[in-house]
């Protein structure tokens, strides 16, 4: 299992970090077998698994429930749990209590919070308590109502400087890594070069220290996926064909065949 110091050392050595989201035990088991460095139980759960239009509906209880499943499937992978909408901006003692639940009840090793300088004090308090914190800057999907959509952030120089300042504040507060979502590659490079802690990009180009991708986007499951995501399979199509074949076989009587009829003497 990767450790926090090891992840920081990977950046120093120029070794890329491969992070993937997971929401249940079987996918986490497969991700572990495939050798991912980090798992993220993302609040994208709400959109890709629970069928909501945004991440805002996801509750702490739901995050804990799915984090437990992921940990059962991938006992040997360092796992980060997203704190859901609203939590990062509560008084730090409440954020600490939620993060303790992530670790004690969810089995997570770290938490991720969307936010900049306004949550730096909270990040410092969690870090002091021994909880590794991953930051998340750029497109913050929990801000979608304010932003009006899932759009690129940090295109204006003034905005870019604000993001660089926020990244430094999170590192100074003790964050061990930082997700950069949907920002220009040049800005992601600037931030990555300014920090000692690794940056994990999603739609942030190549000049970052690692990548994170949503499980369903990687596999090609879902009606829409962000342009920045690469589908390594067209699994939705394959699954649909398999299910259609099953339905046809039940209707025709081709399933079950002799091979799939249990014999009484087998118990
Ligand atoms: N399937 C999925 N993948 C994700 O990466 C993801 C989620 N869901 N849900 C939670 C957040 C929301 N994210 C999103 C969602 C949509 C876009 C998107 O459609 N972006 C447009 C570009 C919009 C623009 O720049 O104007 C795209 O086509 O990529 C991006 C990130 C990233 N996260
Ligand atoms: C896309 C990643 C970074 C995330 O926050 C999530 O999956 O919720
Ligand atoms: Mg998230």
From TrEMBL:
Cofactor(s) for this UniProt protein: Mg(2+)
Positions that bind 3-methyl-2-oxobutanoate: 43-44, 82, 112
EC number(s) from the headed UniProt entry: 2.1.2.11
Keyword terms of this UniProt record: Cytoplasm, Magnesium, Metal-binding, Methyltransferase, Pantothenate biosynthesis, Transferase
Main localization (coarse): cytoplasm
Cellular compartments annotated: Cytoplasm
Domain of life: Bacteria
Substrates-to-products reaction catalysed: (6R)-5,10-methylene-5,6,7,8-tetrahydrofolate + 3-methyl-2-oxobutanoate + H2O = 2-dehydropantoate + (6S)-5,6,7,8-tetrahydrofolate
Cofactor: record remark: Binds 1 Mg(2+) ion per subunit.
Pathway annotation from the record: Cofactor biosynthesis; (R)-pantothenate biosynthesis; (R)-pantoate from 3-methyl-2-oxobutanoate: step 1/2
One of the record's GO cellular component terms: cytoplasm
Gene Ontology biological process terms, A to Z: methylation; pantothenate biosynthetic process
Catalytic residues identified in the record: 181 (proton acceptor)
Family indicated by similarity: Belongs to the PanB family.
Record note on quaternary structure: Homodecamer; pentamer of dimers.
UniProt cross-references to NCBIfam families, sorted A to Z: panB, PRK00311.1
Function summary: Catalyzes the reversible reaction in which hydroxymethyl group from 5,10-methylenetetrahydrofolate is transferred onto alpha-ketoisovalerate to form ketopantoate.
Name under which the protein is recorded: 3-methyl-2-oxobutanoate hydroxymethyltransferase
Species for this entry: Brockia lithotrophica
Encoding gene per record: panB
């Amino acid at each position: 299992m990767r450790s926090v110091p090891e992840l920081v050392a990977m950046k120093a050595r120029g070794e890329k970090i491969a992070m993937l989201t997971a929401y249940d035990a079987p996918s986490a088991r497969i991700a572990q077998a495939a050798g991912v460095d980090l798992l993220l139980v993302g609040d994208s759960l709400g959109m890709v698994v629970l069928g909501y239009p945004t991440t805002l509906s996801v509750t702490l209880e739901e995050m804990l429930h799915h984090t437990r499943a992921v940990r059962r499937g991938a006992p040997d992978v360092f796992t980060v749990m997203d704190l859901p909408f609203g939590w990062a901006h509560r008084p730090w003692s409440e954020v600490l209590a939620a993060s303790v639940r992530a670790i004690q009840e969810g089995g997570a090793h770290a938490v991720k919070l969307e936010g900049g300088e306004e949550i730096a004090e909270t990040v410092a308090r969690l870090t002091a308590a021994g909880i590794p914190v991953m930051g998340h800057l750029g497109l913050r999907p929990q801000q979608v109502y304010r932003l009006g959509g899932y759009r690129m952030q940090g295109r204006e120089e003034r905005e870019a400087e604000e993001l660089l300042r926020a990244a430094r504040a999170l590192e100074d507060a003790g964050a061990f890594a930082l997700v950069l979502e949907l920002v220009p590659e040049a800005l992601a490079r600037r931030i990555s070069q300014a920090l000692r802690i690794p940056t994990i990009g999603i739609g942030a180009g190549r000049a970052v220290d690692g990548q994170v991708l949503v499980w369903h986007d990687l596999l090609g499951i879902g009606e829409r996926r962000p342009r920045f995501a690469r589908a390594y399979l067209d699994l939705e199509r394959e699954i649909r064909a398999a299910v259609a074949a099953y339905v046809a076989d039940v209707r025709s009587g081709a399933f079950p065949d002799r091979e799939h009829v249990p014999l009484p003497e087998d118990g």
